[in-house]
Write a structure and sequence with these properties.
This protein is of the alpha+beta class. Helices cover 31% and strands 30% of the residues.
């Protein structure tokens, strides 16, 4: 890996990078001989260390219509991306596995810290219903390598540019222009959120009660154990919503959550703060979690403890989470090497994950993957877990398709990143789709024997409260 140049003044970041990129293109003589790209690495990454600057604030100042943001739970890794050095997408979800494998094969020729970011449709392929206009830029599968990145990792800040030699050799001027347009501003850009005009829930209360009744009938008659039903809440505002402002406000209250934002045009943005890790892979080591069951946080330490204790001893919530535990354990038994102490990969005891607004039951797993297990194999096996689909999986997904009257899009699908030797994907819950003046909020509830429509409606209200509270609406 090339030595990383360090600069002392943030104001010099753009100028230094422009010169480095010009030198790179000049070294290959791209301007006169684009064919020289065939001799270069598929992706060349130019990276410099810079003084501290918030990746999210930096992103809010950029005018480019292609943006992304990702941060892990403890904010030890954050990245903001602008532009596109490469994009791999498909409207045929059945091909996602081969495309993921292609990304990793390409990256094996390059430095290990190059990452593609993106996500998938909930069902890996779109439903037969017409897509909501705002979902159309997202495809069934889309992974992006940003052109420019602002990164925080290992307690340092970096500015990086990714050059796809095969695709960008004829776009030298365009690349230099995009870099030159970047703004390195440390001030926090935050505007007032527009006023709410209307709210429309799909389904409404009557439709929700009917869907719960049908779900419970199916559970009793067809032997299903759990069905996760979601709701789409459309909030219409008097003016366009600033997505970066929204996620910045959301991040202030998102304790212990993965933050994500994907914007592929000037109209639509998918963003959220999810507590749910689908899996993390480092070489052949995998970590995953089973999260389900919900209670509010208490207003005092005593009430919070009482709610935690109630959750840990709730028959309904423990059963709901145990289906997720069983499903993940079965997947890991197929994916992982069995250890000497157990017939399945190691898991922790059930505990409680505390977030700013709610708390959940959680069980953590880790294991060593078998040889030749790919990320596409892991994704296909783990997703959707019973936390967002149901149990058994195939039967529950049929019920969801029959009962839900909207397309989930990327809601509850895998979102994250992949590199040559590691990957991290979260489940895109606690999320929303911004489309100009409209904000579509998505959340779901696990329906099983004993569920009550009013309780499950209120649980969804609690889950979207992180959005509702920052919007100052009731």
């Amino acid at each position: 890996m090339a030595e990383i140049k360090k600069i002392d003044k943030l104001i010099d970041a753009r100028k230094v990078m422009l010169n480095l990129v010009k030198d790179y293109f000049h070294s290959l003589n791209f301007q006169s001989y684009p064919a020289a790209a065939n001799k270069a690495p598929k992706i060349n990454r130019i990276k410099i260390e810079i003084p501290p600057i918030s990746p999210l604030n930096w992103l809010s100042h950029q005018e480019n219509s292609h943006k992304l943001y990702w941060s892990n739970r403890d904010d030890s890794f954050q990245i903001s991306g602008v532009g596109q050095a490469d994009i791999i997408e498909s409207e045929n979800g059945n091909r996602f596995g081969g495309m993921l494998d292609k990304i990793q094969q390409n990256l094996k020729e390059n430095q290990n810290d190059i990452k593609y970011f993106g996500g998938f449709h909930f069902a890996f392929s779109a439903s037969k219903r017409d897509k909501l206009e705002g979902w159309k830029p997202f495809s069934d599968f889309k992974m992006i390598l940003p052109l420019c990145e602002l990164i925080f990792e290992n307690n340092k800040f970096f500015f990086a540019v990714n050059i796809n030699a095969k695709k960008n050799s004829l776009q030298v001027d365009k690349i230099l222009h995009e870099i030159d347009q970047l703004i390195f501003e440390t001030s926090k850009k935050q505007t007032e959120l527009p006023l709410l005009i209307s709210r429309h829930d799909t389904p409404d209360r009557a439709g929700w009660e009917e869907a719960i009744k049908k779900s419970l009938d199916s559970i009793r008659v067809n032997g299903l154990k759990k069905i996760v039903l979601a709701r789409q809440s459309l909030l219409e505002f008097e003016a366009e919503i600033d997505s970066l402002n929204l996620i910045s406000r959301l991040k202030e209250n998102a304790i212990g959550s993965f933050m994500f934002l994907f914007q592929f045009d000037s109209i639509s943005t998918f963003l959220g703060a999810t507590p749910e890790l689908l899996y993390r892979r480092e070489d052949d080591r995998i970590t995953t979690e089973a999260i389900a069951g919900t209670r509010l946080r208490g207003s005092t330490e005593e009430s919070d403890f009482n709610l935690e204790n109630e959750l840990l001893h709730s028959d309904k919530d423990v059963r709901e989470q145990q289906y997720v535990v069983n499903s993940i354990r079965a997947s890991l038994n197929e994916l992982c090497v069995q250890n000497n102490n157990s017939t399945n990969p190691g898991s922790s005891k059930r505990s409680v994950l505390k977030l700013s607004q709610v708390q959940h039951l959680i069980t953590k797993f880790q294991g060593k993957l078998k040889n030749k297990i790919t990320d596409s194999s892991i994704l296909s096996s783990l997703h959707p877990t019973p936390a967002v689909g149901g149990y058994p999986r195939a039967e529950a997904l049929k019920e969801i398709s029959s009962l839900e009257q909207f397309d989930r899009g990327w809601y509850a699908g895998p979102v994250g990143w992949i590199s040559s030797n590691s990957a991290e994907f979260a489940v895109a819950i606690r999320s929303g789709l911004v489309q100009k003046n409209n904000l579509y909020l998505y959340s779901g509830a696990g329906i099983l024997d004993g569920s009550k429509a009013t309780d499950e409606w209120n649980e969804i209200e609690n889950k979207i409260s992180s959005f509702i509270s920052i919007l100052n609406i009731k």
